[in-house]
Design a protein that fits this description.
This protein has 11 helices and 16 strands. By secondary structure, the chain is an alpha/beta fold. A hairpin with a 2-residue loop joins strand 5 and strand 6.
């Protein structure tokens, strides 16, 4: 049983993530928790109304409950086990608390959604959820025209040579197997910039590796990873780019027509250091395609793992 938490705010933009549920369920029976958090700003705005009526707050809650009931019913008709939940207070905090309390495997949300007084906005709620949640977080940048289901044919996995970055390969492999998709393995080599040669007591600093040498090492590394994956029956493509890491990842996703990016929010190796607030954060902001972010060291990588056989 796969458990997914989907925060909604009542807006069509926030609902776009619902169309992605089939791509995330990977053939499993799926339990979906629909959560709407009535943030304090919503109540403050209601209290500030010139003709304030205490019934306004109750009406806000009732509208949220009715909205979630409708959405949960629609998901049940599609075969999901769906639950409607209401919380009050800080939006990001409640999302993470509910995720832990319900022991969900994945949080799926849009990076931008708004309706009236409430909004889920990248740089605020989504940022804080990614920083705090121990579960993988799936982020969708909504299409303003319409929501559409995701066809997964190519999955991009950025790697930097570290074991932490390779954690993204675990869910990426399971998604690729289920969808029959190929894995696009990308390593971005950042150009070595040497502004001046330094000396200490007449001895020159050891020179940094040439960019060409780093590209060769990156290609060799990706080929080793690809061989291992191909031995498991997976199709792979290898891409080495010379660029700044965030821009290179986004450039590769566009050039190779990928449908999803799967990456860790922390990885480091040599001259490369990926932490949320740096590479991962910029990719979230720049990438037009959905991202699955796995927080390294969090231990929640069971979302897409094969289900254990039933006990006899």
């Amino acid at each position: 049983m796969l458990k997914i938490l989907v925060p909604l705010d009542g807006s069509p933009f926030a609902e776009h993530v619902l169309a992605h549920l089939p791509a995330l369920s990977v053939g499993k029976e799926t339990e979906v928790f629909l959560l709407q958090v009535l943030g304090s700003n919503r109540y403050q705005a209601a209290l500030a109304l010139e003709n304030f009526d205490a019934g306004v707050l109750q009406k806000i809650r009732e509208e949220a409950e009715e909205y979630l009931k409708v959405k949960a019913r629609e998901l049940r008709e599609q075969g999901y086990r769906a639950h409607a939940m209401i919380a009050e207070g800080d939006v990001a905090w409640n999302i993470c608390q509910v995720a832990e309390a319900q022991e969900v495997d994945l949080i799926a949300m849009t990076t931008h959604g708004r309706t009236g007084l409430e909004r889920l906005l990248l740089g605020s709620t989504a940022d804080r959820v990614i920083r705090t949640a121990t579960q993988p977080v799936y982020l969708v940048r909504p299409n303003r025209e319409r929501a559409h289901s995701l066809q997964v044919q190519r999955i991009l996995v950025p790697l930097d040579g570290s074991e932490l970055a390779e954690l993204a390969l675990l869910p990426a492999q399971d998604l690729a197997r289920f969808h029959g998709a190929s894995l696009v393995l990308v390593q971005v080599v950042e150009p070595v910039e040497v502004y001046a040669e330094g000396y200490i007591y007449g001895e020159a600093y050891a020179p940094l590796p040439a960019t060409e040498e780093l590209e060769k090492l990156a290609q060799e590394y990706l080929e080793r990873v690809a061989q291992s994956l191909q031995g498991q029956g997976l199709q792979t493509e290898q891409v080495v780019l010379r660029a700044r890491a965030p821009e290179g990842i986004v450039q590769a996703s566009q050039a190779h027509g990928v449908d999803m990016v799967v990456m860790t929010t922390h990885g480091r190796s040599g001259l490369s250091r990926w932490v949320f607030g740096s590479v991962a954060e910029k990719v979230v902001r720049l990438s037009p395609c959905p991202l699955l972010l796995v927080r390294a060291g969090a231990g929640h990588l069971r979302a897409f793992a094969p289900e254990e056989p039933p006990q006899s």
